[in-house]
Amino acid sequence: MRIVLVGSGRMLYFLAKRFVSKNFQVVVVTANEAEARSLARDVKARVLLGDGTTPLLLRDAEAGRADTLLALLPADEDNLVACQVAQRMFDVPRVVSLVNDPDNVELFERLGITTTFSATELLAQVIEERTSTSGVMALLPLAGGRAHVTEVVVPPGAPAAGRRVRDLSLPGGALIATVLRGERLLVPSGETELAPGDQLILISEPQDHGAFLRLLLGEHA
Amino acid sequence: MNVPARYVAVIGCGRLGSTIASALSQQGESVVVIDREEAAFSNLSAEYSGFRIQGDAAELSVLREAKLDRADLVCAAADRDNLNLFVAQAARELFGVGRVAARLFDPTRQPVFEEVDVLTVSPTMLAAEAFLSVIQAGDG
Question: Edge-to-edge, what's the strand order for the sheet holding A147-153?
Answer without folding.
Answer: A136-142, A147-153, A199-204, A174-181, A184-186
